[in-house]
Amino acid sequence: MGRTVLPITQAIHEEVASWAKFRRALRKEDQSALDDCFQAALMHAAEGAYATRTDPYEVVVMAILVEQQKAIRALQAEVARRSEEGSEI
Amino acid sequence: MPFEAWFFDVYPVSGGMATWWIGQDGARVRLLDPWRPALYVDAAAPGLPLVRRRLETDPRIAGIRLEHRREFWNPTPGPVLRLEVVEPQALDSLARELGGAVGPSRLFNADLPLGQRYCYERALYPLARCRVEAGGSALSSVESLDSPWTLAPRLPALGVLELAPADGVPYRLPGTPLDLIVRAAGGEERLVAARPLQLLERLRHVLESEDPDLLLTDWGDDLLLPGLADLGRRHGIALPLDREPVPPHLNPLPPRGRGEGEGARGGEGVRREARRGGSAVVAKSGRQAVGGAGRSYLSYGRVLYRGRAYPLRGRWHVDRRASFFFGETGLEGLLETARLARVPVQRMARTTPGTAITSMQLDLAVREGVLVPWKKREPEAFKSGLALLTADKGGLVYRPSPGVYAGVGELDFASMYPAIMVHHNVSPETVNCPCCGGVLVPEDGYRICWQHDGLMRRVLGPLVELRRRLKQAMRQAVGSERDVLDRRQTALKWIGVVSFGYLGYHNARFGKIEAHEAITAFGREALLRAKELAEARGFRMLHGLTDCLWLQRRGAGEADYAALARDIGADTGIPVSVEGVYRWIVFCPARILPKTTVPNRFFGVFEDGRTKARGIEFRRDDTPPLVRAMQERMLAVLAAAENPAGLRALASRARRIAEGEIARVLAGQAPPRDLVVSRRLSMAPEEYVNDSLQALAARQLLGRGLRLEPGQSVQYLVVNARAKKREARVLAVPLVDERSPYDRAFYADLCRRAAATLLDPLMGSGLALQHPHRWMRDCKT
């Protein structure tokens, strides 16, 4: 069966690959943060496929934002819990 | 004097079709049916007047008649010429000539496989119980007494003879002897190739005394039967493999084709021959390849291989290593499919579920008098259903977060795509129909006819219903009775799965890509509806895969999941079942990107103690037996855990199994046979530019005169993966013996990797290989 649409995972991988020079120039600690971002993008491939956006970059960025927001919320909840317990943050 | 008998086999001979019957008394009877098939030509075809006169005097044609009939894609009937053919075997050549003269699109019912067509027109199916009337050795009338749709059919007892190569190796170096294992009801014996005359005499005796209905072989198509026939010719002993009594020189039988079991098609000329050049190269069976060889083809990005076929006449030959249905569903599943699809058993055994679904459609068309347009005969591809579905772009394929989870319920839509076709009336001719406004498809914007029941609904509706009844019967059955029902329902599952794939397949007779797309759109809609309903009730969706959901809610039990399943079923119109509630389930991290997962890679244990694992080493064909067994033993240890905490506690016990096995491998004490790796070739041996291990192994065999084709598996032992001399890295299978040395570090690494798959998510085993950080490794900077 011929594919007319590039599978989303592959599209994301290609998008990621296009950032190779950027990644190379980053410091080592920043590289690993970037890697985390791209892994987050991969985790939302299904949602990206369903949305059928024409530019995979949009999917990548939106997925990174979602994962970041989740992390922020988790940290906020943790902060709230600790301050309720009266412990040092 | 009419008698009752089971319909056994059919194939074309001169004067009609030879049919074989199994009487109530156990007699095997051959009757000739002087059946004359017809083909149809569009009466308005521009080229027709030129050939009309010639047709009238053509001795192959018994009669010409003008009729009005409708064809499949067109609702209004039109004038057609009906040409009745004297000899069924002549239909093929006549159709080809006519196709050349008037154009293939003007021909109808011209290329239906003869055996199937005979079954449609006589309302027969394999092992149908019939009332038969015969005049001498000719069949005068037949009437089927039951239906292939019965839950508990009465079938005759079949005599089975099994035949296998004694060493269990599917290919052979030229000149090496082939000892046989022969297994019949009476017991098992080994026939030694070193004494060929005795072997042949003994086999002839067994065939004559047992007279088996079914010859069940390992690699009989490619290796055993061609080899035995050839051996017999060289020693002047004719083995009675066929039951067909007429000597070949009096009734020249058509060449044996690709499992048609019915004659002239199979057409070696139609198929692209896999064997290129190399006339001196010896076939897999160790003899010069004669005429028809196997072929390689591409399916879903994988190169696959189908070998030659060796069907018999009046007796069934099933090569269980080359049969999709036998491999997946055993003899019961094969028979179930052949009966429902009305396809002779030997053809069914050698084809795929796609053939079954197409045949059911053809049957319906022929029965309703609808003409079937000519379809260029292309090899149909092997579609391995479920794997393909998830890989295909159609379904929603989520990725779970890696980790260990407790109290997870798995909900499955039952036969999602067939159910969608039935529920939403999706069919090639109902999508964007010309007759009514139709019902809107989500996402795509296509419309589905609401006035007429589509072909797919009419074919699949009874199939889905029979599967439901079989599964229901399974719940009350136990032991072997339950197994039989399970194999039958699994066969139906495969037909359903593939029926969807076929709609989008360019070789399918009734394919239509829009129908295919409409189904996946309905499927995505259903999965998202299910997610929304679940989330509205406080469940969290951990993972979703086309037609399955993994959900979690603190304290939820089987009953909660069952209630949710019922409501999703009611909402979407597609039944949902609870596969089970897991005590614990592990979604494995991806190897290269450990914060991600791959969609279908997990293992877990249900509350009732069943384990379920997908995508991990022991489920893979290319894992050596030793590694597979080790991982299975480890999983069995872990399966005793009641919850994630217990799982972590058992991890060190599982780890000790791995350590013991690794030590044994490193000490050189593992039997080489257990370390053999089996891999499919994607190219011909000489086409590999790299020195991958499978390429080296294939070249090693080629050097000894045995050529494997793309798509065939090569088996090898890794001797020294890093050897400077490339030839010394592997040893291909017929050359491996119990003293062969193996690469200890290589196999220890395979063990570590398989152990790490289970243990890393639990404890960070420390067993894992140090993976180089390969993220973006392929990027050029």
What does this molecule look like?
By secondary structure, chain A is mostly helical. Chain A has one domain (8-85). Chain A has 5 helices and no strands. Residues 1-5 of chain A have low confidence and may be disordered. Chain B has 4 domains: 3-144, DNA Polymerase, Chain A, domain 1, CATH 3.30.342.10; 160-321, no CATH class; 391-615, Palm domain of DNA polymerase (Alpha-Beta Complex), CATH 3.90.1600.10; 671-741, Topoisomerase I, Chain A, domain 4, CATH 1.10.132. Chain B contains 18 helices and 27 strands. In chain B, the strands form 7 sheets. In chain B, strands 20-21-17-22-23-24 form a 6-stranded antiparallel β-sheet. A 5-stranded antiparallel β-sheet of chain B has the order 3-2-1-8-9. In chain B, strands 12-11-10-13-16 form a 5-stranded mixed β-sheet. The longest helix of chain B is centred in the middle third of the chain and has 25 residues, at 479-503. The N and C termini of chain B lie far apart (86 Å). The chains are: A mainly alpha (89), B alpha+beta (781). At the A-B interface, helix 1, helix 2, helix 3 and helix 4 of A face loops of B.
List the helices and strands and how they pair.
The complex is a heterodimer of chains A (89) and B (781).
Chain A: H1 8-17, H2 20-25, H3 28-42, H4 45-51, H5 56-85
Helix pairs in contact in A: 1-5, 3-5
Chain B: E1 3-13, E2 16-23, E3 28-33, E4 38-42, H1 48-57, E5 61-69, E6 78-85, H2 91-102, E7 107-108, H3 114-122, E8 129-135, E9 138-144, E10 160-165, E11 180-184, E12 187-191, H4 196-210, E13 214-217, H5 220-235, E14 295-299, E15 302-306, E16 316-319, H6 324-341, H7 345-350, H8 353-367, H9 385-391, E17 403-413, H10 416-424, E18 439-440, E19 447-448, H11 455-476, H12 479-503, H13 513-536, E20 540-545, E21 548-552, H14 558-572, E22 576-589, E23 597-606, E24 611-614, H15 625-638, H16 644-666, E25 677-680, H17 693-703, E26 713-718, E27 730-732, H18 744-763
Parallel strand pairs in B: 10-13, 13-16
Antiparallel strand pairs in B: 1-2, 1-8, 2-3, 4-6, 4-7, 5-6, 8-9, 10-11, 11-12, 14-15, 17-21, 17-22, 18-19, 20-21, 22-23, 23-24, 25-26, 26-27
